[in-house]
User: Fold this.
Amino acid sequence: MMTIQTLTKNSGSLNVSQRIKNRLHRGELTSKQVEQFRFFLTEVDRDLLHHRIITNNRYTRWFSLGKATDQQLRHFIRQFSVFSNQFLVAALLKTINSPTLRQSRSSREILLNELGVIYRNPQQSKRDRSIMTEEEKDREGDPELVSTEGTVDGGICRFQAAHFEWLLQVATALGFSFADIGKRRHGTLTTLHFCDELIRLYGSDDPQIAQGASFAVENWAAAGFWQELEDGLSEIKQTRHPQLPLAFFSWHNRVEAQHAGHTLEELEAVYFNPDFNRAKFFQGGREILKAIAVFWDGLNSDRDNDE
Assistant:
């Protein structure tokens, strides 16, 4: 199981990890290299992790209050379903275009989990599936029960564990069918812009740009917006829609720190390579954050127009 360093807006700044310190002590890196990496992390923290869409997302801050009307809620779920489903295209391209086997496996961790392979925690004892009832086996796909830590290597694939199926449960409770969500035709221009930029940047065949975009995306996801969405939906569930399932949002709220930890390890692995291109890394990060802002600003504008 990978060591996880959570990078959130509450963490203050990025720090040199124990992994890097161990490499220094083993003589694999010099003090000068580590100090340069420290300065690089300061730039990353300042230029990427303090982007306004990470530190001050107006839409999710409003959503957290639980004041969204049913019309606004349905619009949000539909647009989020487009992003969630189209992300699979970008994640597949990221896997295909990975420059190393290690990075390919890291990308597959995310993609396969999205598709329904449940994380297996090697430190937890395995349960004998032969003595499990069909109901118990089926509940392994329940996001309230599956692990948020570990690896998909050796994990079990369950159709019901696919993230889009969890989101479909939310959508169904609001009157949507499977055919009503997740397709490009359901997306607004701002949502589709974000999806296309994910494909272009996160799934880029230029590993330097893809690295920057990946780092920015995963740390955006770990920086608190899932909590704001969960807070708003919890309020709506308590006051208006008691049957609204929240597991899709609560599970992501718990798991995204692991993804951010993976990207930090990837960054440490590539930074000290002679071909690492800082300019392209920051280009990928800045451009994907701009696209993320377009998505949320679009939802905020749609919300303003509904009021």
